[in-house]
């Protein structure tokens, strides 16, 4: 019997994750009090094979009951049940935006600021995060990308030893991404914005890509960038990092940074890296 326990930060995507697992044939329960986990496992084990895949969500919504999670996991192990823990997290900035967009209150914020609730929750979840089988950072993930990651882990049998590389193109005039681990400035390359026929195009278009990459310095930069990232990744993995955010910026985030980001992601995928690409500022009005 496959048993998955989903937990993590509020607003990080746990509800979406359990829906994806349900679509994949898992019997799912949301917000199950930890004290009932072992009993629930016992019931499912008596189903004579009709329930073979189980996913439950348990988190701080359980209030004081959540404090019993560790003892419940101990009971599972004593009962001979093997389980995976899927832990979802995201950056503080992303979580705050999600709570404000949904107009929900953070469970631990009370009447205070959202950030206080997030910090309190991070501290409360430190122990369970340390036990997690898989950790997914959804900061730069779309819903479809989260689904792909769920499928990779629980259908394709993927392991989490590979770093997830997030490549973000951005415009310096809109600010540097706060979660960037490596930030590169490609404003030294000639700007297609000043070519009238390309102004409304982007780094997705062939004419822009050809213009950006026709300069010798662009090819040299790509070669050195890829070489440096390849050099660093094993050390980030050794450090225990599960996600690397590479931010590539130009003036507006529409032409040069998009071109370089797409090309870098293509070359990294060819080397069997797991890559997620986001073009943060490509649709900003000031870029056209």
TrEMBL record:
Residues 164-283 form the RapZ C-terminal domain. The keyword Ligase does not apply. InterPro entries: P-loop_NTPase, RapZ-like, RapZ-like_N, RapZ_C. The gene is rapZ. ATP binds at residues 8-15. Keywords: ATP-binding, GTP-binding, Nucleotide-binding. The keyword Cytoplasm does not apply. Coiled coil: none annotated. This is RNase adapter RapZ. GTP binds at residues 59-62.
């Amino acid at each position: 019997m496959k048993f998955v326990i989903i937990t993590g930060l509020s607003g990080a995507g746990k509800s979406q994750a359990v829906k994806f697992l349900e679509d994949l044939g898992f019997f799912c329960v949301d917000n199950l009090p930890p004290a009932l986990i072992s009993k629930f496992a016992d019931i499912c084990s008596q189903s004579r094979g009709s329930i073979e895949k189980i996913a439950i969500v348990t988190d701080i919504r359980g209030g004081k009951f959540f404090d019993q999670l560790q003892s419940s996991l101990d009971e599972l192990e004593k009962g001979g049940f093997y389980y995976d823990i899927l832990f979802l997290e995201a950056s503080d900035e992303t979580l705050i935006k999600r709570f404000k967009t949904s107009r929900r209150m953070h469970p631990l914020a009370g009447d205070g600021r959202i950030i206080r609730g997030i910090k309190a929750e991070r501290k409360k979840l430190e122990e369970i995060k340390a036990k997690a089988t898989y950790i997914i950072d959804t900061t730069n993930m779309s819903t479809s990308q989260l689904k792909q990651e769920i499928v990779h882990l629980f259908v394709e049998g993927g392991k989490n030893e590979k770093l997830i590389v997030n490549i973000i193109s951005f415009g310096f005039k809109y600010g540097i991404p706060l979660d960037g681990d490596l930030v590169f400035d490609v404003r030294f390359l000639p700007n297609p914005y000043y070519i009238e026929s390309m102004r409304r195009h982007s780094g997705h278009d062939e004419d822009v890509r050809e213009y950006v990459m026709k300069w010798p310095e662009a090819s040299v930069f790509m070669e050195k960038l890829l070489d440096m990232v390849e050099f660093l990744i094993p050390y980030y993995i050794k450090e225990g990092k599960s996600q690397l955010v590479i931010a590539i910026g130009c003036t507006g985030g529409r032409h040069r940074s998009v071109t370089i980001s797409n090309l870098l992601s293509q070359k990294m995928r060819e080397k069997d890296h797991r890559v997620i690409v986001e073009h943060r500022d490509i649709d900003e009005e000031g870029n056209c």
